[in-house]
Description:
The complex is a heterodimer.
Chain A lengths: L1 H79 L6 H32 L8 E3 L1 H18 L3 E5 L7 E3 L1 H18 L5 E9 L2 E7 L33 H11 L3 E6 L5 E8 L3
Parallel strand pairs in A: 2-4
Antiparallel strand pairs in A: 1-3, 4-5, 5-7, 6-7
Chain B lengths: L3 E5 L3 H7 L1 H5 L3 E5 L2 H11 L3 E4 L8 H10 L7 E6 L4 H10 L3 E4 L8 H9 L13
Parallel strand pairs in B: 1-2, 1-3, 3-4, 4-5
Helix pairs in contact in B: 3-4, 4-5
Amino acid sequence: MEKITLLNILVILESLILLIISFILFFKLKDLSKLKKLQDELNDLKSSKNSARDDFLPILVHELRSPLSVIRGAADLLIKSTDELSVVQIQTLLNQIKNSSTTLLTMVGSILDVSKMENGKFEINKTFSDINSVLNEECSYFDPLTKIKKLSIQCTVDKDIPNFSFDIERVKQVLNNLISNAIKFSPEGAVITVTSKKTGSDCVVYVSDLGVGIPEHEKNSLFQKFFQASNQNGVQKGTGLGLFISKGIVEAHGGKIWFENNSPQGSKFCFSIPIKS
Amino acid sequence: MPKKIFFVEDDEGFYNIFSVPLKMKGYDIVRVSEGSSAVERIITEKPDLILLDIVLPGMSGLDILKELREREETQSVVVIMLTNFGSDENISRAMEYGANDYLMKYNIVPSELPDKIALFLGEDQDFNVKVMGS
Lengths: 277, 134
C-alpha cells in the first residue's frame, strides 16, 4: 500500500514537473517569436532607410549638378563669346554665376548641418532678440515671391512675447524652409499665414497654407532625413533635408516641431521655443 | 523662316545661359517652364526641335516624351533630352520612348549646343570654334 502511494506521489510529482517544463517552454517560445518579429521589423526598417538613402542620392547629385551646370555654362559663354555679348548680357551671366554659387553653398551647408546633427556636434548661437521682428522680416522677404505666384502672405504676431535668447539666423532658416514649402504647395489665390503666440513659457510659431496637405501615411515621416512629399506633381525636387534640419534647429533650442492639418484644407507646421532670457 | 526650338526647362538660370548661343545662331527659341502645358503647346505651335528636361513641375519630361510619341501629330518631332539625371534607367526609358538623343547638362557647354542641334535639323555645323588666346 505504501509502495503504491509512493508511486502515485512520484507520478504526480513527475506530471507536475512536466507541466511546469511545458509552461516554461511555451513562454520561451512566445518570447522567441516576439524576438523574431522584432528582428524582422528592424530589418525592414534598416532596408527602408537604405532604400530612402539610395533613392535620395540620385536626387542629391541632380540638385548639386544643376547650379554647377549653370556656372560652367555661364563661364563658357563669357570666355568664348565675349565680343558678341552686350554689357547687359555679361552682367546677367555674372549674376547667374553668383546666384548659382550661393545655391551650391547653401546646399553644402545643409549637408554639413545634417552631418553635425547626426554626430551631436550641431551648435546654435543665441542672442537676445525680438522674434516677432524676425517673423515680420521673413514675411516681407517672401512677399514679392508670393505676389509673383499670385499668393499672399500674412503675418500676425503676439505682442505678449517678450525679447528672449535664440539663434536669429537659424530661426530664419526654419521659417525660410516652412514658408518656401507653403508657397510651393499652395494654389493660386491662396493665403499663407505666419503667426506667433505665447503659450505658457513657450513662443509658438505657426506657418499655415491652404495647399494639398500631407497624405495620412506620410505624416510620421515628415521630419525624417530625405523625406519627399509624394503629392508633388511631376518629379520631386529638393534635397529632402529641410524639415529634418528645421527639427534639429528647433530641438537645439530645447523646443519642438510638429505638423497639424489646417482647416478647411492644407497644412500647418508649428514649432515652439522656450522663452528664456 | 527660322527654325523653331522649344526649350522645355523650369530652371530659368540654365535656360538664360544655354539659349544664348541658339538665339545667336538665329533660331526662334520658345521657353516652356511647366511640364503640364508642354504637350498642348507643342501640338499647337509645332516646333522643329524640342530640348526636354526631365525634372519639371506638373509633368516629367519622360511622361511628356511618351505622350508626344503616342500622338500621330508629334510622333516624328525631334526630341533631345537635356537633363542632369543620367541614370541608366532614365536613359533606357528615354530611348525606348523615342528620344532622338540624351544629353547631360553637366557634360555640355552652351557653345556646343548649336552644333548638336544642327545635326538633327539637317543643317551645316559651324566648325569655327572661338578660342581665346592661351
